[in-house]
Amino acid sequence: MRKIDVFDTTLRDGEQSAGINLNTAEKLEIARQLERFNADVIEAGFPASSQGDFEAVKKIAQTVKGSIVTGLARSIKSDIDTSWEALKYGEQPHIHIFLATSPIHMTHKLKKTPDQVVDIAVESVKYAKKNFPLVQWSAEDAFRSDPDFLVRVVKEVIKAGATTINLPDTVGYATPSEYGAMFRHLKENVPGIDRVKLSAHCHNDLGMAVANTIAAIENGADQVEGTINGLGERAGNAALEELAVALHIRKDKFTFGTDVKLDEIKRTSQLVSQLTGMAIQANKAVVGKNAFAHESGIHQDGMLKERTTYEIITPELIGENSTQIVLGKHSGRHAFKDKAIALGFELSDEKITEAFKAFKALADKKKEISEDDLYVLLTDQQIQEEEVPVYELKSVQVQYGNGSIPTASVSVISPDGDLLQEASTGSGSVEAICNTLERLVQGKVHLLDYRVTSIGKGRDALGEAVVNMTYNGKSTTGRDVAQDVLEASAKAYLNAINRQLVNERKRSYAKTV
Ligand SMILES: [Zn+2]
């Protein structure tokens, strides 16, 4: 069986989605999980785009050893230099340089002639090659490029030392047969093409990203790029979990497969959804809540008699065991720590103590603690960044009656350490809380989106709130989890404000050093 490399870009193309902003600790946590998922390459970010991205990529390159870590760079020396500073810590330093090759991008965006584009591409690959053993070169908007120009530029960048050639369908316009044909054309016409890896990168604007990716493999691609849960700009990228499961389930047909650890899919998907605040649609293939639910009577009857009548994928295949009750009220610190280790968490004693406290508080309210709950508690500890003074919720109280005006009173500790209290009304309980918090945080808040979902099942499930807003004109996202949705909402609101404050502090720090 031909092995196909999996290149995950959840932290770069996925993070570019509207409404997502991850801090370094969260990115690191996702990268560590992608390593368990067994991605061959992890694109950790775009180091030259911001100080925050640089730090995250560097931290990931220093930490992750089981997967190759890469970062995106434009075809300019300063981007390549900055990338090297972040990526040189990796076991096999890898850079991903891109340049547009379609007439529409060359004329309007780059304002360069095709000859100039070839020169820039060659120069940047040669320059990167001085430090990086692995250089991936992407022809941005490859699918809408002239096929003969593509042959020409790819031939030249291979001569310059590129080790991987990526041919993206940047705007998600291709059909499977057309996208496959582009790979075949290059395979047949570029001298030396067998020396490099060919990579597919598909967007899902017409819902064909996974199908296009498979067509590329059938025509010579050795690497596939995509994201967990199909995150990404606009309609997103090819969903890696769908791709890996499709190749596995239909191995009777395909002569190729990936080394993805399929039983890490559920956990990877949930972690990405939790930390990005991007909910997974219930009917999403492989990882949706309903992906294994059989509703109709005829289907249920069939399933009871023989599971394979209607089930082609088992929940166990992707590591779905969320209904498992793992710990209860009387479980001790020792059992808790053992479970945390068994779940793959590496926490300091201090963090275990903090997580255990949160577990005890939850166990007082909730009889049985499931694995889903534990993941949330432990991940929350794992992603705590070093202490910087931010707003902290002390208490929230809401008065609500269907015949009266909802009123919230909230107290918070400010970044300066002062206890602040306010009360305010709203047309609903959540609005009353938001109005009160807006007075407390001293700034202009404009709420863009607000969502509450439950984690796991049952009437005592944890509630997760996600808040999208602009704070003093800049957009930010916050999320938090609590047993009560009103408390979760207040915490998510403050989380969004705090992220913005931390970012601002980092930026002013970057300017002073
Ligand atoms: Zn893309």
The helicity comes to 40-55%
Low-confidence stretches: none
Largest sheet: 8 strands, parallel, barrel
Radius of gyration: 25 Å
The rough form would be described as: globular
Sequence of strands across the biggest β-sheet: 2-3-4-5-6-7-8-9
Class per helix and strand makeup: alpha/beta
**Total beta-strand segments:** 18
* C-alpha termini separation: 52 Å
Ions, cofactors, ligands: which are bound?
zinc ion
What proportion of the residues form beta strands (DSSP E)?
15-25%
Average predicted local confidence, pLDDT:
91
Number of helices: 17
Keywords: Acyltransferase, Amino-acid biosynthesis, Branched-chain amino acid biosynthesis, Cytoplasm, Leucine biosynthesis, Manganese, Metal-binding, Transferase
Protein name: 2-isopropylmalate synthase
GO molecular function, one term: 2-isopropylmalate synthase activity
Cofactor: Mn(2+)
Question: What's the short story on this structure?
Answer:
The chain is α/β, with parallel strands linked by helices and 513 residues long. It has helices spanning 10-14, 24-37, 51-63, 77-87, 103-110, 114-129, 147-159, 176-189, 209-218, 240-249, 265-276, 297-305, 333-342, 349-365, 371-382, 429-440, 485-512, and strands at 2-3, 5-8, 41-43, 68-74, 94-100, 134-140, 164-169, 197-202, 223-226, 256-257, 325-328, 368-370, 392-399, 407-413, 419-425, 445-455, 462-471, 474-482.
